[in-house]
Each structure stands twice: as C-alpha cells, then as structure tokens.
Amino acid sequence: MPTSKSFFFSSLGKKFIMGLTGLILVLFVIGHLVGNLQIFADPEVINQYAHLLHSMGPLLWLVRAFLLLTVVLHIWMAVLLVIENRRARPQGYEGEHTHRASYASRTMKFSGIIVLAFIIFHLAHFTLRVTHPEYENLRYTLQEGAYAGTEVLDVHAMMVMGFQKPLISLFYIFAVGLLAFHLRHGFGSMFQTLGLRNKHWGGVIEKTTITFAVAYFLFNAAIPLSVMAGVVDNENIKSIDDSAEVMTLPEDDSPEQTD
Ligand code: HEM
After folding, report:
1. In this structure, is residue 114 part of a structural domain?
2. Is the pTM of this model over 0.85?
3. What is the pLDDT of residues 9-32, one digit of tens each?
C-alpha cells in the first residue's frame, strides 16, 4: 500500500499539490480582483475596505503567511516536475504530442516567471510602497461607519496615481494578461490530472476556462485603462499637486541674478 509520503513525492502527488495550491491562488486573485473593482465606486468604498483588511492585525499576517507558503509550494512542485519531465523525455523523438506538451510547459514557465516578477514589483509598489514613498502622503479621513473620522492611507488615490504612469499601467496589463494565460493552461493540466479532460467534458472545460481567463484579463485591465483614460480620477491627488505648485512659487518669484 502506498504511504502518504510516497504519494506526495510521486508525479501524481506533485501534480495534486500544484493543482490544489493553484486553486487556492485562483480564489485569492478572484477575491483580490473583486476588491480592486471597488475603485470604480466612491473613494470611501475602497478605503473602508482596505482599512478593514489592514485592521485585521495578526489574522492578516496569518493569511499572508499562508499565501506565501502556497506560492512557494506551487513553484517548488513546478520545478520538481520540470526536472522529472526532462529526465523522462525520450531522446531523439519529437512527435506532435511531445511538441505540444513542451510548447505548453515552455509558455507556463515563461508566464510563471514573469508573474512572479510582477508580484515582487507589485508588493514593493502598492503594499510596501518602497518604489513610491510619496504614496504615504496620500491621506483620507473615513466618513462613514464604525471608523468614521479615522485618517487612513488613501488607497483609491494611490491606485489612481500609480496607474497615471503609462509604463506602470502597461506592465500591469501585460502581467495580468500573462497571468490569465497561465490560469487557462493551469486549469487545463489540472483537469487532465483529474482525468476529466475526456471527450465528454473536454469541450465544456475548454470553453469555461477560456471564458474565465478572458473575463479575468478584461476586468483587471479595465482598472489601469480607466485611470489612463481619465474615467477614474481622484480629487485628493489634484489637491496634492496644487499644494506642490504653491510651494514652488516663492522660488519662481525670487529676484533674477543680474551681472
Ligand atoms: C490591475 C491589477 C491589480 C491591482 C489594481 C492591484 C491592486 C493592489 C493594491 C492597491 C494592493 C495594496 C492594498 C493595500 O495595501 O491596501 C495590492 C496588494 C496585493 N496584491 Fe494586487 N493588484 C492587482 C493585481 C494583482 C495580482 C494579479 C496579484 C497576484 C498574482 C496581486 C497580488 C497582491 C498581493 C499578494 C497583495 C498584498 C496583499 C497584502 O497586503 O497582504 N495583485 N494589490
């Protein structure tokens, strides 16, 4: 009888862990997208939501640690499977099947690495704010509910300010495009592992995963695109810009040096 240890170290066990961790991450990205779409409402809405998350304290750190562990396991299993496949690949034979499989695994590797690079940048950008420390100056006083009167980080203004930079917006759109592609192929392999990618279910699964991936991409891309198009704006940023102009006035008024 196979022990649980031998199952987790078998090919099937690794694929199972990849699928399970992938599923957890998919649930996270869907939840995150729903949260981010609140940018289309009044700034109060997303700022209330962000403050609620920030005020979760130790629970937030527990969720973060769990997510990190999930990402690490997902990548670790992917690396082990790549090594395993490389060892098992038949030498000197390149049939249609192996050609298609290596195309899929190559694109999964590429999209996975870029998405990982994106996550690192994204955390530095919006969560740690080390790339743009000026976001710290964006403050908002909550108007409603139990936290009315509390001054918080203006997450709405931070997102608008972030996406007003076309290069950053383009990188986000590119990364979520690759993530959508990664999810579509990931779902495909997961159903194959589960043995559901057969004649009966194959077509339905294919259409559902493509529809999901396209919708996921479009909803995500709508955020930076709407900011760049000026559909989503933020008054707080304008007042910060105006006060910056006022502060530079005395320098402009200083007497000119004459010889
Ligand atoms: C257009 C797309 C996205 C937008 C607008 C966005 C926006 C944000 C914002 C504003 C925060 C900081 C929240 C805060 O500190 O209050 C954040 C955090 C985060 N985002 Fe995103 N995000 C996007 C896509 C993604 C994707 C695709 C992933 C993962 C693949 C992701 C993973 C995360 C993680 C892990 C955090 C840290 C959460 C924490 O504080 O623990 N984001 N995002």
Report:
1. yes
2. yes
3. 788 899 899 999 999 999 999 999
